[in-house]
């Protein structure tokens, strides 16, 4: 029986790190991280990229 992902002590789990390096961060997480960085820099940011707003939404 052949296993395509055998563990080699010389290369370690190189196949896993190669696979994981191809995974990109979600745009939602990227936007949230940027908003957090801007907040730390002193900017007034209302983040609407992830979760629920922390204020009441206006009525129409």
Give a written overview of the molecule.
- The protein is mainly alpha-helical and 60 residues long.
- It contains two helices and no strands.
- The mean pLDDT is 78.
Sum this structure up briefly.
This protein has helices spanning 14-21, 27-40. By secondary structure, the chain is mainly α.
Spans of at least 5 consecutive residues with low confidence? none
Percentage of β-strand residues? under 5%
Count of DSSP E strands? Answer: 0
| Helical percentage | 25-40%
Mean pLDDT: 78
H/E series: HH
- Overall shape: elongated
SS field, number of helical segments: 2
Q: Output the structural class.
A: mainly alpha
Distance between the termini: 65 Å
Largest sheet: none
Computed Rg = 21 Å
List the keywords.
60 residues; mainly alpha; 37% helix; elongated
Topology overview:
Elements: H1 14-21, H2 27-40
